[in-house]
Structure formats: C-alpha cells, structure tokens
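FAQ

Q: What does a record look like?
A: Structure on top, sequence underneath. For example:
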C-alpha cells in the first residue's frame, strides 16, 4: 500500500478503478476517508468541490481513453475535439453503444480501429487523420442537429474550401489521394465518391451544382472570400445600421478652404503611417510641387495624397457597384503611389502582408472579400455610416502592398464629400485612439470604439475654420492636434 500516494494534495484529479486488487483497496480507503468520490463507473475524483459534469469535461480525453482503449475520436468530433452543445461525443470503437457520463453522451460506433495515419493520443486513444475524418463525415446520417454524428454538409464543404484557401490546391489533391487509399482499407468507397465529387466541384472539375455552401460556391465562380472578415463586416454593418448619426455639413466651400483642409488631411494621414514632416517642409513640398532632395520618396507620398484629397471632383466619386469599387480603389492607389513603382501602384497585392502579429486578407481573397463586403456598404444610408464602413473594409482587407491606410481614409472622406458633409481629420494626437479602435473591432468584434472615435473627430473637424491657412494651423495647435505625446488629448 505504501506505493500509492496518501496525501490529498498528491492525488490526481481523476483516478480509475483497475483489476489490481491492492489498488482497488487503496481507492476504497480513500473513498471511506472522504478523499475521493465516484464520478462515473470506474471513475473517481479527488476534487470534492467541482461538479461531476465539470470533472468529466475537463478530463474528457483521459476518461474516454481509459474507458474505451483503442477508440478513435472520429466523425464530427475529430474536427471539433469537444462535445457538441447537446453534450454528444463520437468515437469509432469495437461495437456500437451509447454510454452516459455526467453531462455527456459518448456514442460508440462500430468500425475499424486506429490506423497508421491516425494520431496516437492520451490513454491509448487515437484521433482520426483528416482524410478519415472527412470520409466519416460523408456517411449517411438520418438525424439532424447537434446530436448527429456528421457535420452538416455545408460545414464540410467550407472546411474543404479552407484547406484550398490556406494551403492551396496541391494540398487538397494530396488529401484526396490519401483518402482514396484509406477508403479501400476502411470499406468506405461510397463515402470517398461523395468526397471526391465535392473536391472536384471546388476545383471546378465537377458540377458545382452539388455545393450547398455560399463560401464554397464563391470559390467555384472565381471569387472566394474571407469568411472571418465577412463576419466582421456584418458586425460593423449591424451597429451602423441600427444607429442615427448627426449631420455636419461641409464648411470648406471655396477652393482655397477645401485645399487648406486637404493639406492637413494629407499631412496627418501620412503622419499616421510614419511619414513625418514639419509643417513648413510639408507646405514647401505642396506649394512647389517638388520633393525635398533628401526625402524624395516621403515627399512623393505627401504629394500623391494631396493630389487626390484636394480635388473635390475626384473626392465626389463613390462606387455604385462592386466592380466600380475595385476600379476606384486601384485608380486612387495608382495616383497615390504613382512615383513609387516598386510599390506596384494600382495593383492588388500578389503576396500576403501583415502588420506585427496581424495578418490581413489572403491575396487570393481580396477581390472576393471586397465584393462580398460591398453588399453591406450599399445597404447603408447615412453618409457617416458609409464612410466608417468603407474605411474599415479597405483597412481590414489591406488590398495593396503599401498605402492601405491612406487609401482607406481617402475612401472614407470621399463618401463625406459626395454627400456634402464635412470630411474627417485624424490628427496626430488622436492617432492612438484611432488605431486602437480599429484593432478593437478586428480583434474583439467590437465596433463601438471605432464609431465613437470617428464621430468625435468628425465633430472636431466640423468646427475648424478653413478659409485661412494660418488661422486653421493656429486652431489645430491650440487643440493639441500636432502633439505626439501620450499625455495630451484632442481639445475642442
């Protein structure tokens, strides 16, 4: 008996009965002393406070591996790796049976045991390899809902589409080849035929009419899109569409006033991207239309931005169709970076890009995601709502190698100019608030900070006196607009 731990703190959370008599006596003594309690047949716990359901869920794989040695986590559970919302979990085993555990129903389904392709797991369990999991989810299922062993066919299609989207066609073809070989060994030729048809349809070598997922169908028609970004766009659309926003009429009515505003619009937009000039140098660049010799590329960035945002006619153009959106984005990017051929002006990115740990939309999904997102844009009515949505959509997709932030703000302010509303300045002092609000929507699906930030800064912009350059500059200075200090705030 000395070989077993005596102290309560040394006991594992779950213990299992066995054929070892001495160990059985040991468990019996622990139970009599109140150190453990029975959770399920042959399963005990030293945790006397947590519920039986929590114990089982937390130690799911340890328990089912011990109770059903050699079982294979299969069917939908091979993909989800957790019980369904109705508490169902599916294993391939030596026989078919339902086993009730606290808060859980384990479905044992008779089938072939672990194969060389399957992954060995805890306590003798196996996890079905992807090829086997897809084959098993092709089986006929007469139940519907969360307690069915197979995923809905729509979700299976979307998982296969994601394989292509993330890893390319070579990977899906390799998966299909392996599934063909495995199906013969598992007597699942009929299931392979179904799988083969879906993959063929996704690759446009079979009839696409069999597909049920809109995401999968979009790939067939050459316009695959990013489903996560589409969900984000829907979140933002819902928030914008359910609110009412004040109108701030355009105040820069003369050509000079519009150009004064555009100067600071260009200045601040480039500053956000790290292109920093003094006001004097920036003004010299704009007035002479010549770059500073020591800062040729940065100067051209300033000139390219100003050339667009100072042109009221250009800034009054908005897209009416998804194709027009794509043409407009590429045209404005071409103007913005016309002096930077290495940045491929006017061309969507040909490789993936990121900022820090944030990855943007896959380059192959840019057009499809823009077109899907455009549907929400068209359904918005408020100029401010359309401006915010356009800003985020372009920024989040990041369709170009460079210049994405500036293009997104150009597209935002074009919406406002088109509607004769006041454009939005995002001053240096407000840079962190603005970027943090974008990240909050991206990472937490929370649009409130972005809507609030842009509402506030539009109200600020509407109060600016733009008819005289020096007056406008002084007003911005008094508002802390040029401050790069974390201690300062934008003052109205």
């Amino acid at each position: 008996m000395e070989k077993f731990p005596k102290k309560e703190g040394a006991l594992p959370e779950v213990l299992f009965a066995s054929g070892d008599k001495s160990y059985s006596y040991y468990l019996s003594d622990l139970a009599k002393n109140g150190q453990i309690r029975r959770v399920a047949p042959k399963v005990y716990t030293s945790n006397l406070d947590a519920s039986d359901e929590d114990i089982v869920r937390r130690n799911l794989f340890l328990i089912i591996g011990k109770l059903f040695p050699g079982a294979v986590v299969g069917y939908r559970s091979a993909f989800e790796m957790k019980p369904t919302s109705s508490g169902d979990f599916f294993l391939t085993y030596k026989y078919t049976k339902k086993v009730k555990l606290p808060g859980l129903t384990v479905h044992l389904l008779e089938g072939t045991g672990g194969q060389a392709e399957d992954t060995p797991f805890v306590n003798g369990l196996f996890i079905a390899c992807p090829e086997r999991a897809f084959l098993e989810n092709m089986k006929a299922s007469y139940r519907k809902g969360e307690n069915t062993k197979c995923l809905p066919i729509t979700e299976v299609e979307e998982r296969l589409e994601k394989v292509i989207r993330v890893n390319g066609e070579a990977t899906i073809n390799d998966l299909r080849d392996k599934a063909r070989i495995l199906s013969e060994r598992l007597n699942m030729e009929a299931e392979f035929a179904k799988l083969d048809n879906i993959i063929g349809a996704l690759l446009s070598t079979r009839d696409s009419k069999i597909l049920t997922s809109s995401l999968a169908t979009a790939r067939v028609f050459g316009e695959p899109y990013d489903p996560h970004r589409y969900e984000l766009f829907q979140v933002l659309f819902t928030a914008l569409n359910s609110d009412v926003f004040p109108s701030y009429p355009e105040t820069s009515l003369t050509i000079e006033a519009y150009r004064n505003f555009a100067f600071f619009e260009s200045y601040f937009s480039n500053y956000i991207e790290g292109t920093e000039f003094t006001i004097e140098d920036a003004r010299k660049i704009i007035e002479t239309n010549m770059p500073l010799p020591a800062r040729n590329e940065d100067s051209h960035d300033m000139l390219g931005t100003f050339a667009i945002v100072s042109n009221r006619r250009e800034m009054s153009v908005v897209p009416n169709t998804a194709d027009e959106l794509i043409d407009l984005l590429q045209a404005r990017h071409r103007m913005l970076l016309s002096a930077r051929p290495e940045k491929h002006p006017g061309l969507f990115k040909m490789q993936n890009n990121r900022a820090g740990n944030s990855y943007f939309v896959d380059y192959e999904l840019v057009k499809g995601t823009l077109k899907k997102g455009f549907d929400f844009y068209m359904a918005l009515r408020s100029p401010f709502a359309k401006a915010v949505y356009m800003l985020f959509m372009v920024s989040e997709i990041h369709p170009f190698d460079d210049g994405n932030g500036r293009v997104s703000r150009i597209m935002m302010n074009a919406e406002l100019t088109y509607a004769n509303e006041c454009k939005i300045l995002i001053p240096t002092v407000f840079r962190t608030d603005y970027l943090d609000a974008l990240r909050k929507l991206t990472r937490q699906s929370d649009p409130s900070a972005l809507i609030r930030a842009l509402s506030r800064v539009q109200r600020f912009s509407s109060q600016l006196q733009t008819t005289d350059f020096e007056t406008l500059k002084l007003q911005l200075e008094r508002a802390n607009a040029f401050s790069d200090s974390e201690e300062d705030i934008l003052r109205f």
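Q: Is there anything notable about this one?
A: The chain is about 50% helix and 10% strand.
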